[in-house]
Amino acid sequence: MKKVILEPGRCYHVYNCAAGGDPLFDDESDRSFFMDLYRNHVTPVAETYAYCLLPDHVHFLVKIRDGVAGPYKHFAILFNAYSKGWNRRRERRGKLFRFKLKRIEVRREAIFRDLVRYINLNPCRHGLTKNPAHFRYCSFNATVRQSLSLIPRDELAGRFGGQHQLAEAISEPPDEYQLRKYMLE
Predict the structure, then answer these.
(1) What's the whole-number mean pLDDT along residues 28-46?
(2) Cα gap 69→64, rounded to integer Å
(3) Which residues, including other chains, have CB under 8 Å from residue 82's CB and lie 6 or more apart?
(4) SS3 state at 74
C-alpha cells in the first residue's frame, strides 16, 4: 500500500501496536497518561471521530484540521513521549511501538461509518467486554452520551442520520470484509 502523508482536510485510520507482543497499557494510569498526551499533541491538529486503547494496540479515526503544518510530527511526538514515559516508569529501555505511525486515508463515507463501528466495537471483538459502554478507553460512551468529549457528536450524528440513529448504528457490527485493508489484524 502506498505511504500517505497526513494532509489537512482528509480523514485517516491511524493505528499502532506494541513491539514484540508486549502490552502498551498495564493499568488505568497508563491509558490516562496516553490520552493526556493525545489531547495535548494531537487534538490541536486533528478532529477525533473514534478511538480505542486496547492492551496491545490503539486505533483512531481522525480528520486533519485545515491550515495545520506538519501534522505527522504531532503523532510522532505522542508515540515518542508515551514510549519515554512508559520506559521511564518501568526502568526499561527500547522500542515500545512496532511502527512510527500506521495510517490509511479514508475516502469513502461507507468506510468512514464502518470504521467508527469497528473502532468502537473493538473491545468486544477482542473479548475484553460484551458491551463497549463498559470499556472506558474507547469512544463509544463519548459518542452516545451527552457529555464533554473529544468526539464531534453533532457531525457524527449527521453522518449517521441523527443522534438516535448514531447510537443504534455504532452498536451494529461493521462490514469487516469491506474494512479488511483498514484493519490492524
Answers:
(1) 95
(2) 10
(3) 33, 34, 37, 96
(4) helix
Nearest to 24 by CA among 15, 131, 136: 15
In order of their start, the domains of the chain are 11-179 (3.30.70.1290)
Please state, in angstroms and rounded to a whole number, the distance separating the CA atoms of residues 93 and 114: 37
pLDDT tens for each residue of 142-153: 888 876 678 998
pLDDT computed for residue 184 by the predictor = 57
Tens of pLDDT, residues 46-84: 999 999 999 999 999 999 999 888 899 999 999 999 999
Sequence-distant (≥ 6) Cβ neighbours of residue 126 within 8 angstroms: 54
**φ, ψ dihedrals at 46, nearest 5°:** -145, 140
User: How far is residue 156 from each of residues 10, 11, 61, measured CA to CA in Å?
Assistant: 15, 13, 12
Q: At 119, is the pLDDT very low, low, confident or very high (cuts 50, 70, 90)?
A: very high
- How far apart are alpha carbons 120 and 72 in whole angstroms? 24
Pick the closest to residue 119 from 174, 168, 53, 50 (CA basis). Answer: 50
Q: What letter represents residue 7's amino acid?
A: E
Q: What is the rounded CA–CA span in Å between residue 178 and residue 183?
A: 10
HSE-up of 183 (CA within 13 Å, CB side)? 14
21 pLDDT exceeds 80? no
